[in-house]
Write a structure and sequence with these properties.
Strand content: under 5%
Number of helices: 13
Shape: globular
Helix content: over 70%
Number of domains: 1
Radius of gyration: 19 Å
């Protein structure tokens, strides 16, 4: 067992070094693609099982996959470090996913839920300014506003109010704020929050979120997996692309740049999501969506230039 743990630890260090050598824009591009895949996975899974059941098994699968690679680091970590990182993970993953997925399940239209979730850059900037008292330049604020206008153009045709209870519309917004708070918390803690490394942190996030989703999914019915290929594909898709890829790259990019920049990059996710949907589900792709994505890219450029100054 010790030999397996040493090999896993060596491979984990090699992965971290490899990620540090890759150019940041390349990592950000991969982040946008993998983050967008989560919305496609949710869209696909609705036809095969309860969304919360899929999220629960997604967390279970990731914890099982990562355990051999992180067991040694977790044993060596202090309870305080484990508790802090688990708390950050509960906000970042369970809080965000519950807000977005449960909002859609209660009747909030997917387009509106995605738009509220895509307010992450604005939420991050407001928390940075009001809570952390860090001043952002005018160019950064202009970039955030331009990027948001691009998101509005992309999602305009998909926006509708639906028939959800009024309070349900606040769930995606609360999910967005949960991820923003977790991101800034982790960033402010610096080396203390990153002492475990990427994979152990991701394992803790999935582990604590899996427990939370077990209660949520269990209240809706059985926790047993649905025996069909659609459910299996949904879990594999969201575990591999959306969790290991999306959340993993999200934290890598946050550690290498800034929360505001990484959040602004996610302005591109609605356009990429619609492109995924066009390829996989033959959903319409309009000129407004392409224009909105281009406008969002301009906004991201302004944010990057403003932060570099």
């Amino acid at each position: 067992m010790n030999t397996i743990a040493r090999v896993a630890s060596s491979r984990r260090r090699a992965l971290a070094q490899w990620l540090n050598y890759l150019p940041l824009p390349l990592l950000e591009a991969a982040l946008v693609v993998s983050w967008s895949s989560g919305f496609i996975g949710a869209r696909f899974s609705i036809d095969h099982a309860s969304p919360m059941l899929v999220v629960f098994w997604r967390c279970v699968l990731v914890t099982l996959i990562l355990l051999p690679f992180v067991a040694r680091s977790l044993r060596r970590a202090s309870p305080a470090v484990l508790l802090e990182n688990a708390s950050i993970g509960l906000l970042a993953m369970a809080g965000y996913l519950y807000g977005v997925v449960q909002g859609i399940a209660l009747g909030v239209p997917a387009g509106l839920a995605a738009l509220l979730a895509d307010l992450l850059p604005i939420g991050m900037a407001l928390l940075t300014t009001l809570v952390l008292r860090q001043r952002l330049g005018r160019r950064v604020w202009l970039g955030l506003a331009v990027g948001l206008s691009g998101v509005l153009l992309v999602t305009w045709d998909a926006l509708a109010w639906g028939g959800a209870p009024p309070w349900a519309y606040g769930l995606p917004l609360l999910g967005m704020l949960s991820l923003a708070i977790a991101t800034l918390w982790k960033r402010q803690r610096g080396a203390a929050a990153n002492a475990l490394g990427l994979l152990p942190n991701l394992w803790l996030q999935c582990g604590i979120s899996g427990i939370a989703f077990a209660f949520v999914a269990g209240s809706e019915g059985s926790l047993l997996p649905v025996v069909n290929s659609g459910f299996a594909l949904s879990v594999l898709w969201t575990a591999g692309l959306a969790t290991l890829g999306g959340y993993g790259l999200y934290w890598v990019c946050v550690n290498r740049s800034s929360p505001t920049r990484v959040a602004s990059v996610l302005y591109l996710s609605p356009g990429v999501t619609l492109l995924w949907a066009w390829v996989m589900f033959d959903e319409p792709l309009s000129a407004w969506m392409v224009l909105g994505t281009a406008v969002s890219a301009v906004g991201i450029g302004l944010v990057v230039r403003g932060e570099s100054r």
